[in-house]
């Protein structure tokens, strides 16, 4: 168990989708950055998928990121100056074609703010930060990918027995994620099997809910939280819960879109009982069932 989970920071890759606006994604999602190379057409692909690239033996779809989030698409003349950001997210390798790469900068999650209302309906922005007095928008890559590659119904709706359902139904469950698409997926998974739950869109609200429930004598049994969140992230939330006598009753399941052993290792260090790469509904439900079993053993 690590002694301090505060000041969690990570690298942010800054890049350009337009000439004026900078965007960012966490470097933990990035495998490599390569110059544009000729792509192979993919029949019946999503309109934003320009084709497939083969890199180091892997074939991956390449998305025009500007077009995918609502900006003018890349022209054929621009392609030779563009870059492909290869990401490992949602258990798949995907390339994002961008107009330019700016730099990598360190960022503390506490420095990321909620998107201002002036951004309007740009739902792909999950937060904003300032780098050298310039506003940088943090993209919700999960939401973008869910639009281009929708989840299969089997991934969204878990299957469990009536006995298993009755094991979970009495438990007080809290779901935490800053991504609207992830919250919707989590909600749909539990709604489909009639399991009640509470939901929070950030770590600080979740911690407040956990403390209020504990002080009211009705603490949460299971906490399911995203790792990457602005403000109080999943690591810090898990650390706070495990190091509080009033809260550490909860079985903690952290989940991440990163296919990274590092994320899983850090999750266990801060006291999480489990760490999952999201999103697969059956995996999540079976993690909850393991939590229910542990809680039952402690009560007995």
TrEMBL record:
Residues 172-293 form the Response regulatory domain. Keywords: Phosphoprotein. It holds the Pfam family Response_reg. Coiled coil: none annotated. The modification 4-aspartylphosphate is found at residue 226. The keyword Phosphoprotein applies. Residues 9-150 form the CheW-like domain. The keyword Phosphoprotein applies. This is Chemotaxis protein. It comes from Photobacterium atrarenae. The lineage of its organism: Bacteria, Pseudomonadati, Pseudomonadota, Gammaproteobacteria, Vibrionales.
């Amino acid at each position: 168990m690590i002694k301090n989970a505060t000041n969690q920071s990570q690298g942010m890759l800054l890049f350009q989708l337009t000439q004026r606006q900078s965007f960012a994604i966490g470097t933990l999602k990035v495998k490599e950055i390569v110059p544009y190379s000729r792509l192979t057409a993919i029949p019946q692909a999503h309109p934003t998928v320009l084709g497939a690239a083969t890199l180091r033996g892997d074939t991956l779809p390449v998305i025009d990121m500007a077009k995918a989030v609502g900006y003018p698409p890349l022209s054929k003349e621009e392609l030779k100056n563009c870059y492909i950001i290869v990401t490992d997210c949602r258990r798949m390798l995907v390339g994002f074609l961008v107009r330019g790469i700016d730099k990598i900068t360190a960022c503390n999650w506490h420095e990321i703010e909620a998107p201002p209302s002036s951004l309007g309906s740009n739902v792909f922005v999950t937060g904003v930060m300032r780098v050298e007095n310039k506003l940088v928008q943090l993209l919700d890559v999960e939401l973008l990918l869910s639009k281009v590659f929708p989840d299969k119904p089997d991934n969204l709706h878990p299957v469990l027995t009536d006995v298993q359902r009755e094991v979970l139904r009495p438990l007080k469950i809290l779901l935490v994620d800053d991504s609207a698409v992830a919250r919707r997926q989590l909600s749909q998974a539990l709604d489909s099997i009639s399991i009640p739950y509470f939901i929070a869109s950030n770590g600080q609200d979740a911690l407040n809910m956990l403390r209020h429930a504990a002080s009211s004598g009705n603490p949460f049994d299971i906490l399911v939280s995203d790792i990457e969140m602005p403000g109080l992230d999943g690591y810090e939330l898990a650390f706070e819960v495990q190091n509080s006598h009033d809260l550490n009753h909860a079985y903690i399941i952290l989940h991440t879109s990163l296919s990274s052993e590092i994320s899983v290792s850090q999750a266990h260090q801060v006291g999480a009982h489990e760490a999952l790469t999201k999103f697969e509904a059956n995996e999540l439900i079976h993690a909850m069932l393991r939590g229910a079993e542990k809680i039952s053993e402690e009560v007995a």
